[in-house]
Amino acid sequence: MEGPFIRIEDSGEVIALRPEITTIGRGRGVDIRLTDPSVSRLHAEFVRRGPYLYVVDLGLSRNGTRVNGRPIARRVLDDGDVVSFGAARARVGGIPREDFTPEVELRRAAAPELTRREADVLASLCRPALSDEAFVAPATAREIADDLVVTEAAVKQHLLRLYQKFRIPEGTNRRTRLANEVVALGLVRPTPVVPTQRATDPAHHSPTTSSRRAS
Fold it and tell me: Where is the FHA domain (predicted)?
């Protein structure tokens, strides 16, 4: 088989990875579907950049992603690495061998400068997913508009600028890819679990945005 591929350990199935991004999870809309209940609906992505392949944990699953047993956020892969999505495991193959240290996590790009309103839009975009362990879908433009009490047209303009700032290419699942990148950069974080007696305090249920936001 030409190019990178994964071999699912339970079934032995060999699946070629797409030229750029391959999504993996338990949901119906992913490129590689795993049925293990420990896998989130949209769990992780394999990303190809030239001769390199890396895996990105989407950061919103309680069970996480591991490479050779170590939990990761974003990690360059080497031929033969074993990637675990929850309890499901797959071995990576077809990666050209280079003088490259696989133990090094791929460094994340610096987050772009954001206006206060752009930071609010990002927080609202990710809010539906952050209250659950499975990343189902980010908020729609209409839902963001209702949340922030602004027009849907204004939200769409903010989203267009955010796509440009985060270099999210045109195509399907653009809002989802933006949300994934925002969470990976730590600009919006999952809501921490709090004791039951404090559950009525709304301050413990809203996602937090990074102090990097600009006024």
Answer: 22-72
3-state class of 6 per DSSP?
strand
CA distance linking residue 123 with residue 188, whole number of Å:
6
Distances (CA, A) of 213 to 114, 118, 130: 5, 8, 19
C-alpha dist (Å) from residue 118 to 15, 125, 194, 207: 38, 10, 28, 14
Question: Could you tell me the CA-to-CA distances from 22 to 17, 18, 19, 33, 101 in Å, in that order?
Answer: 6, 6, 8, 11, 23
pTM of this structure: 0.50
How far apart are alpha carbons 102 and 130 in whole angstroms?
30
- Give the closest residue to 142 by CA, choosing from 130, 129, 120, 124: 124
Amino acid, single-letter form, for residue 187: L
Asked if 124 and 177 count as a contact pair (C-beta separation under 8 A), the reply is no
Residues in the chain: 215
Helices 116-130 and 174-184 cross at an angle (nearest 10°) of 100
Q: Is the pLDDT of residue 133 over 70?
A: no
Strands 70-71 and 65-67: antiparallel
DSSP secondary structure, 107-147, as one string: PPPPPPP--HHHHHHHHHHHHHHHTSSS---PPPHHHHHHH
Is the distance from CB of 10 to CB of 17 less than 8 angstroms? no
